[in-house]
Specification:
Length: 363
């Protein structure tokens, strides 16, 4: 096989038009367009409507940081525009007349290089036919290495003249896919007219928890729990926790007392609550990996069965089989996990409060 021809030189201006975008729970690349004040990003990066400013932090190729607000969003096209106060580059990208699949050579920033330095070395060359309309690489094409990566989320896909053919979407639940920008596909940029189409005020999520509970006079309860939550504009948290726990016996039950069941106690609890979420920081200073505190108040509704004979404490054995208690709590939210603490406060003064702790995985 003859040696591949050398790839064309990367246009000198393109790297200065690529930026990193650090939005809440999203990190992506973006492309500077227009007069240099606008940054084109995948819609998912700014999909949730949140109060306050800035909506994202944009870092350019020189390392300078810019506060960015939302200029326009459009779920149908999968695109959004951010606006910054000062122009990022004097050479923003223009649109290409070409489409993916045309017989043209392309450049893009592959997934493997998307988190590295934003310089000319970040770009990869994709010869004619090597990058399809789904953003997938065909290593069988001549002169394409078998280790070639597809473009990363937010990466621009450009022609050899440095004009923008497409931008890669985020692909939260699937592989990133290219969003073509040519007028031949309906001029999607024209839909970014200043409207905020289809941004959603709610974030739904769930999780699994390992709950622990104990009262000063009682025993230790532990088990498994599940959480369903909704965050309203990333501030108000509506939450439902459900758990099933067992009581650690304080003494071994006599063998003759055990029949088909031999537990000290079993308990099921459902706790609806409402809280106020405050983002206090992020891993590495990045809002894409937020750390948040959420104080909350709720009502715990419990049902339980205990056996003094099988090792329950006197306090737990005397607890009613059905109860309702006020449940203030505090949650430390981390990326993909949380630590939650709370207190169950009885509605009368004949019982002592119960302390709750939980470790959770959020998805």
């Amino acid at each position: 096989m003859p040696a591949p021809p050398p790839p064309p030189a990367l246009p000198a201006h393109v790297t200065s038009a690529v930026v990193r975008v650090d939005a809440y729970e999203h990190a992506t690349l973006g492309v500077v367009i227009g007069d240099g004040h606008l940054v084109l990003v995948p819609f998912e990066a700014i999909e949730v409507a949140r109060p306050g400013f800035p909506h994202a932090i944009v870092t350019d190729a020189s390392g300078a940081r810019h506060d960015a607000g939302v200029a326009a969003t459009d779920r149908a096209s999968g695109l959004a525009l951010l606006a910054v106060e000062l122009p990022i580059t004097a050479t923003p990208m223009a649109l290409s007349p070409h489409r993916l699949g045309d017989d043209v050579d392309l450049f893009a920033i592959p997934h493997a290089a998307a988190s590295g330095p934003l310089d000319d070395s970040a770009w990869s060359f994709y010869p004619v036919g090597s990058l399809d309309a789904r953003g997938q690489v065909h290593p069988s094409c001549p002169h394409v290495p078998s280790s070639a990566w597809p473009p990363g989320a937010g990466s621009p896909i450009i022609d050899v003249e440095g004009r923008l053919v497409a931008i890669m979407g985020e692909g939260i639940f699937a592989s990133p896919h290219p969003i073509e920008l040519s007028a031949a596909v309906g001029a999607p940029l024209e839909r970014l007219d200043g409207s905020e189409r289809a941004r959603r005020p709610l974030i739904f999520y769930g999780g699994m928890t390992l709950p622990f509970a104990f009262a000063p006079e009682g025993g230790l309860w532990f088990g498994l729990g599940a959480t369903l939550s909704a965050r309203v504009r990333d501030v108000v948290v509506l939450r439902l926790d459900a758990s099933f726990t067992v009581l650690v016996p304080v003494a071994s039950p006599p063998p003759e007392s055990c029949g088909k069941t031999c537990y000290a106690g079993i308990r099921g609890v459902a706790t609806p609550s409402i809280g106020y979420r405050q983002v206090v920081g992020g891993f590495g200073g990045k809002r894409a990996w937020p750390i948040a505190l959420t104080p909350s108040i709720g009502v715990a509704l419990g049902i339980q069965d205990t056996s003094r004979e099988h090792g329950a404490t006197a306090y737990d054995a005397a607890t009613p089989s059905r109860w309702a208690q006020i449940a203030p709590g505090l949650t430390l939210s981390l990326p993909f996990g949380e630590v939650r603490g709370g207190v169950l406060v009885p509605l009368d003064d004949t019982r002592s409060p119960t302390i709750e702790l939980g470790l959770g995985l959020v998805f």
